[in-house]
Amino acid sequence: MRRSSLLVFVALAAPTALGVRPAIAQPVLTDPVHFRIDLYADFRSLPGNPRARSALLSDGTNGFPAGLYVTGGFDRPDTPILLVDAPSHVTVFKDGLPTNEALLFAQGGYGSGMFVSEPLDLAIKRLLPDGTLTTFATVGKGPAGPFEMTYFQGSLLVTDGSDGTIVRVNPDGSSHTFATIPIPPAGPDAFPGAQAILTLSSPAAARFGGPILASNFDDGPGLTQDSIFVVSADGKTVTTIASPVQKPTSLTEGPGGAFGNNIFVSQLGINSQNSTGQVSILAPDGTLTPFLKGIDASDVVFDTKDVLGGGMFIMDGNGSPTGDLPGRIWRVRAVPAPGAALLLAIGALCLSPILVRGRA
């Protein structure tokens, strides 16, 4: 495997041929009392200014080094898969891919490795820890193909960017239609299709009235006519719960704790590069409440195993005001309650004499 190591330093401004780039605008939390945000990684020092489209977190137990694996989307001629394993530290884990949209670890009867969806190749590839890349399945009729992936009842479900199809892919790579969601009409320079998909936990499925959430997406400039749907377990019933929605690219269920079991919707900006997107919380009645504004959000991943220090990691795929469109990763963490911090401090003071006596 060809693997090049490139250190990325987070800086508020970097020189360009035209002078100095503007400072990176920090997204705004709607609840700054209970959460804080910081820039975790900035890709603009990497060749080609790769985007940050979708992410998958490895804890190191599946053969892949621990860290956050990040795809770049499908609008670059050469789109690497990046590995972010510390603040401001990014390596190219696998390069030479024509496109890559989403990542998912293979499990059960699907074997080993990591699945990579490649929309423009109409393929799902299997990536092994040593860098070997093979085609696992073909999905879609074009111009796009597979986008987001999830497991449901032991089977792999994939959204097809060619149309509104949700495809069930079998362990042998064969596939058939599982469900079909409506898609918005195609506008100029746009192609609508199925986009995000999420298998809900049992409590969330009870709240939303179905086990699967999915979205459509129209990549045209300025369009805000997308929707989010609930899909039944047999795929036969599709119910619209939110419409219109501005460019929902991914859906993520919260892990509990400070973030709750909310459904977080990543939304790109209206023109895909002006930081007018956001991360929203989706209610069962379809209400979208902003959680973070001023970010072209394309994916949300939670670090529940403290691989990178915990928190919510948000992919900022398109938010460059300069037009060179580098990806960024932001981290949101909960602010400890003042009472909890005080109790920890008192506990430490109380333990100090005991520890000193124990060493005497």
What does this structure look like?
The strands form 7 sheets. This protein has a 5-stranded antiparallel β-sheet, with no helix packed on it. The longest helix has 22 residues, at 338-359. 44% of the residues are buried. Mean pLDDT is 85; it is low at 1-21, 340-345 and 351-360. A hairpin with a 5-residue loop joins strand 24 and strand 25. The protein has 2 helices and 28 strands. The chain has 360 residues and is mostly beta strands. It starts with a strand and ends with a helix.
Distance between the termini: 55 Å
- Unreliable sequence segments: 1-21, 340-345, 351-360
Largest β-sheet summary: 5 strands, antiparallel
Mean pLDDT: 85
Please tell me how large the radius of gyration is.
21 Å
Number of helices: 2
Measured by DSSP, the beta-strand proportion falls in 35-45%
User: Quick one: overall form?
Assistant: globular
The assigned structural class equals: mainly beta
The H/E string reads EEEEEEEEEEEEEEEEEEHEEEEEEEEEEH
Helical residue percent band: under 10%
- Spatial strand sequence of the major β-sheet: 1-9-8-7-6
Number of strands: 28
Give me some keywords for this one.
disordered C terminus; five-stranded antiparallel β-sheet; mainly beta; globular; 360 residues
